[in-house]
Task: structure prediction
Amino acid sequence: MLKTGEIARDLTAESIRKLIARAVDAIHVPGFYPAELSARFADAIAAHSELEAYEIQSSLKRLGMGYVDVAGRAEKAEQYHSEAMRSIWGIRDMIYPTLTPIDHFRLLLEEIWPAGATLQTIKGNKSFVGTCRVIEPGGVMLPHNDRLARMLGDDSAGLTGQMAMNIYLDMPPAGGELELWLREPTPEEDAVQVTDDGIAREGLDEPRVVIRPGNGDLVLFNSQLIHCVTPAVGGRRVTASCFVGYRGDAAPLTYWS
Ligand SMILES: O=C(O)CCC(=O)C(=O)O
Ligand SMILES: [Fe+2]
Result:
């Protein structure tokens, strides 16, 4: 039985404000990107020569270095920023001149949010946006949260909210669900995440909401709250993702991966 929670069905300034205020648990837009294009983009991602396995789990592969991979290392931060524009184009080029779901999302955010939306800069440098992930059968993402301030080691980005956006391009026949706990990690759980891939699922209570997106769906949720991806069964799971930063209703939203 899926636990449905409070889900908004359209991407609007109002639904984003509700997500930030925790009046809704997620924004789930079915059919955000056409099914035929989702299949074509998923194939291009899975066939890409630069698709790399994560350091810790080989059944999890990604295209595009996320800021999470910087992990406080200055040389990795430099690599991240120096590759950012080339990586954005690497993803765009897979389906160009058709619009990728990431670029479509970026345009919609700019249009719906009163103060607009823009690419996140970190210490004056432009960020990459649009990490694509391929999870092979059996692969998971352990419970974790995502918070830029933890990755930077300070509050210099000035965010008062952070959301995660995923577009589901090719879902496995079973599994691969997004589970949401709707709570922040404890300080102990937060400490575990600095060294480990995530928090052991066995030690947690049950998730409050379980979402099983269809191909082409978009889901936006609060990334500061614990979430995970259950094992994919019987097929690959391909997604395109980014984070969205919030600094109050009057400030532009920002996005990065
Ligand atoms: O693939 C998903 O459903 C969620 C991935 C995730 O952890 C995130 O976008 O922060
Ligand atoms: Fe996450």
About this structure: The two ends are 32 Å apart (CA to CA). The mean pLDDT is 95. Residues 144, 146, 164, 223, 227 surround fe (ii) ion (ligand 2) (CB under 6 Å).
